[in-house]
Design brief:
Layout lengths: L1 H8 L1 H26 L6 H15 L1 H31 L16 H4 L1 H20 L12 H8 L3 H28 L13 H22 L14 H12 L19
Bound molecules: protoporphyrin IX containing FE.
Length: about 260
């Protein structure tokens, strides 16, 4: 136990925790982005996929959700503590010395603010599409029409697109520094030329942002409700709603789909 505590209290220990949790979250957003793109195939496809994750994957959903939540918490706590350690390490009483990092990009200079914007986005996002708290009239099963309804609202689309910009910057610097911390990428002659993370950051952010933009500009239209959802599930959720359960309540546990729809 002491070993774990020493590791966590060391700067390298925190950097490794940030790198590992960061890469877990990169894996999640890539999978989530690809899952979302089914909105361009059909309403039935997207809804069936959401239903599959909710009702077939079942218990594993909570395990993955637990890993995601633990990763976000460890990532944020390690980031805050590392920042404090760095600030505390600045020599005091010798007049303020501006800290000039070795390799400074716009992404690295703004990564903390971008990180907080992403955190605010994730909270809003889960309340929006998973717990259906912001729009209780959304359907617990018709993910497709929830997405279409959601992105017909200008400020919602603007917020999502802004957050995807922050995600691109976070991935550009975060994925690169994670690979560096774990020794998976060698120091380069031109450290700001990072073709792989640039491609990753660009593709993930664009792959996400294209959904709200396509809905907002009319390329993705509303569809007949509840396509792709098994009839018995619709009967069950209709029964539940008539019994007064909130719209987001699941027909069978577990409640949500871990963003795979
Ligand atoms: C424009 C971009 C995005 C769209 C259109 C989108 C869409 C969705 C939808 C429709 C759901 C609900 C799925 C369901 O419950 O059936 C969802 C859930 C979720 N999304 Fe996204 N998402 C986007 C970006 C992101 C990003 C960037 C992140 C993380 C950084 C994220 C994290 C999550 C999480 C954690 C959930 C809840 C998973 C759960 O516990 O079930 N999403 N998303």
């Amino acid at each position: 136990m002491q070993l774990v505590r020493n590791f966590w209290q060391s700067q390298i220990g925190k950097k490794v925790v940030m790198a590992v949790t960061g890469l877990i979250l990169v894996g999640f957003v890539v999978g989530h982005m690809v899952g979302n793109l089914q909105v361009f195939q059909s309403a039935a496809k997207l809804n069936a996929y959401g239903y599959f994750l909710k009702h077939t994957v079942g218990g594993a959903l909570w395990a993955v959700r637990g890993v995601l939540l633990a990763s976000v918490i460890l990532h944020v706590v390690a980031a805050v503590q590392l920042t404090r350690q760095k600030q505390a390490a600045r020599p005091s009483g010798q007049g303020y010395q501006k800290y000039e990092p070795q390799i400074s990009t716009f992404a690295s200079r703004t990564i903390r603010w971008g990180g907080f914007l992403l955190l605010a986005f994730i909270v809003f996002h889960i309340l929006h599409f998973t717990t259906l708290t912001i729009y209780p009239d959304y359907s617990p099963t018709d993910v497709y029409n929830n997405v279409v309804k959601g992105f017909q609202i200008p400020w919602v689309t603007a917020f999502y697109v802004l957050a995807m910009g922050a995600l691109a910057l976070h991935l550009f610097h975060g994925a690169w520094s994670s690979l560096r911390t774990l020794g998976l990428s060698r120091p380069a002659a031109r450290p700001t030329a990072r073709p792989i993370v640039t491609a990753l950051a660009g593709l993930v952010a664009l792959g996400f942002a294209v959904v709200p933009l396509a809905v907002f500009f009319g390329a993705v239209q509303p569809a007949a409700p509840e396509q792709g959802i098994p009839a018995e599930a619709l009967e069950a959720s209709a029964l539940q709603q008539s019994a007064g359960a909130p719209a987001g309540a699941s027909t069978t546990a577990p409640t949500s789909t871990l963003a795979g729809h």
